[in-house]
């Protein structure tokens, strides 16, 4: 009997190994086919130029703002103070001593280079990646708050709260995110900034209209996830809590929501991953997130294959990391 079980296990293990080998062979064939297609298209890969879109060394030039004479050059350690006297005016510049290009008594004109130094700067990919993560984080944070409130209102017995929540959810889910971004930027954004300008207040940057569109869009879906999670908890839980003297709000906070949260965590993670990918639409309102940054890089470099593949890989890194984090939270809750 034991020998039969062992034979069955070995057979199962062999089948599993065989199918894993089939998977890697299939993956290899797909990659090979892709490479073959690019060779037939006579595309020249230039992966060696990709790193500059992550980090590059820029030359910072310090130029004179006025025309005149360099009257003083004082060096202290690694820095020099250059003083230029012009026609009734004087300018002082703090420059690196290593890159100093003028000396006392020199005549300089407006725009002449006084000093230059090298500095490492984040490339378009890093800039876009950081902005994408900022936008997504803000959208997720406000989306959770809005969705939690709307979800609770959705299951409320108060008609005003319930109908308001239903109206909000149906309005948002009934139109594409791209259209909502356009409405936020071109309609609501214009109206709000016009009113602020007439009141003498500073205008709101387009970034915040992008965050608002993402948060409100995510909030509608989070509200339905929260509602489904709350309604999945047996009614007896609430009745038992009320019989112990708890108010509805206290029972919801202490009994229902903690249990519902475990159930809604996986769909919430899926919604947030979707929101990260949806943030790529914000490029249409001139927000330089990862997709727009990649589009700009492709325009100047003419390397569409390498840069778009790298862009997809960066999105995958973000979404996979979030997915792993949520799985970690799920395991912690089970433990």
UniProtKB/TrEMBL annotation:
Note the NCBIfam families from the entry: HEQRo_perm_3TM (TIGR01726)
Q: Does the keyword Cell membrane apply?
A: yes
What is its membrane topology?
A: Multi-pass membrane protein
List residues traversing the bilayer.
21-38, 124-156, 177-201, 207-226, 307-329
Main site of residence?
membrane
Its name, as the record gives it, is: Putative glutamine transport system permease protein GlnP
Note whether Transmembrane occurs among the keywords.
yes
